[in-house]
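Hi everyone, sorry if this is the wrong subforum. Our group has a chain we'd like a structural model of before ordering constructs, and none of us has done structure prediction before. Sequence below.
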Amino acid sequence: MSELNPLTPEQKKENRTLLGALGLIVIAVAALAIIGFLFLNKPAEIMEGQAEATSVRVSGKLPGRVVAFYVNEGDMVKAGDTLVHIHSSLVEAKLQQARGMETAAQAMDNKVDAGTRSQIIQSAYQLWQQAKAAEEITQKTYARLENLYKEGVMSEQKRDEAKAAYDAAVAASKAAKSQYEMAKQGAQKEDKESAKAMVNVARAGVSEVEAILEDQYLTAPCDGQIDVIFPHEGELVALGAPIMNVLKIDDKWVTFNVREEYLSDMTMGKEINVMIPALKQKEVKAKIYYVRDLGSYATWNATKTTGDWDSKTFEVKARPVEAVPDLRPGMTVIYKD
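Answer:
Right subforum, don't worry. Here is the predicted structure as tokens:
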């Protein structure tokens, strides 16, 4: 069996040189790693928020059908600009009825001082009979619609409109009966006072219906931009139903949800620099004006039983120091600690 050839002195020297070089490389890498760890900068804390703006809801007290919109989503409007037309044939009919009652009450008041003639008594009786007939018709209509509503083939709004018409007819019938009874009794002092009161009641009824009809044309409550329109033309809207939102684009702010350990850098009145990615990473200065605890539902619970604590979340709001016209609600806003 042949023996291995021993290394020559030159080969041994080369091996020692190679091992020495490898050792130096290992030492250098380790040194660089230690130096990098010791001098490594802590990355900046990044907090992500979003831009917001005040939104004013437009609604009215007139239930009816949307006839026409005079604005579109995205349009800029001024306070007082006409936005939408809502039509209600029922309310307009009530207005005519109320005006008729006012005219009748005023005529009766004008005649009461001259005494009660047979023609006046007869006229009052006929008005009462007409009112009673109207009451009977509206009562039957309401009863039919009530049954249809219970069967699920009639909307609640139609049922309510019929109920309102019936209630108005009942009131009109009672008023007409009072006028007839007063005509029979003659013009006493109490009768005169009653006639005046009836005139005032009738005028109040007219004013009430006119106040409701004022909302058939809804106007912009403030300067801003039409954000969203809810119904379409031709749709029925209920009392107080939202029609559209007007965005006050001059009233903007940014909102952050911040853990309480970072609040020391976001105090009330402090100006901070934020970045808006959507605006080509534009840097904007904003002033903090609002800090509020979000409550227990937004608490970060500790994961350890000892050596750790719960951390609450706070809502922080800041307004841009200078106007940012292109800033839109919903845009992401970045704050670096």
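For your construct planning: The longest strand covers residues 242-259. The chain has five helices and twelve strands.
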